[in-house]
C-alpha cells in the first residue's frame, strides 16, 4: 500500500500511515494483523460511501439550490428506466408534504 501510494501520489510513508489510521478511526477501513503486516479492508459498502459523499455536498450548499442542482445532475447523467421510475416514485411521495417554496436556512445555524 505504501509503495503504491508513495509512487502514485508522491506521499511519504508517514503521510500514508496517518491517512490509513484516520480512515480506521472513522471506521471507513478495517484492519487485520497478519504477523507484522496490516491488512486493510473496506469497512463500509460502496453505495454507503457514495451516499455519504453526496450528503456532504448537499450539507455544504444552501437548500434553495437543491432543486436546481438535482435537476442539473439528472439532466447530465445516464439513468436506467427502473432508476427513473424509482426517482419518480420518491418525488411523488415527497410532493404530498413538500412546501410551496424552500426558504434559506444558512444563517439560522
From TrEMBL:
Q: Does the keyword Zinc-finger apply?
A: no
UniProt keyword terms in alphabetical order: DNA-binding, Transcription, Transcription regulation
For this protein, the record's Pfam families field holds:
Penicillinase_R
Biological processes per GO annotation: negative regulation of DNA-templated transcription
Q: Which domain of life is it from?
A: Bacteria
Q: Name one GO molecular function term.
A: DNA binding
Q: Is Acetylation one of the keywords?
A: no
Please give the family membership noted in the entry.
Belongs to the BlaI transcriptional regulatory family.
Q: What is the protein's given name?
A: CopY/TcrY family copper transport repressor
Q: What organism, scientifically named, is this protein from?
A: Apilactobacillus kunkeei
From which lineage does this chain's organism come? Bacteria, Bacillati, Bacillota, Bacilli, Lactobacillales
